[in-house]
Amino acid sequence: MFYWAMVFLAVALITGLFGFGTLAAGTAELIFSIFVAISIATLIIGVIQKSKD
User: In sequence order, which residues have a C-beta less than 8 Å from that of residue 39 and are 6 or more positions away?
Assistant: First the structure.
């Protein structure tokens, strides 16, 4: 799960880096927010599952 959290975070950061400040800023901001949320949710789920083991 940690791997996927880092993948989603990397995608979010790359999207934010290349998208903000251009004509597609609204779309980039939306995708950035979605991937940051997925990254955080995946990280939390991974920590919860690991603590149950």
Answer: 5, 6, 8, 9, 12
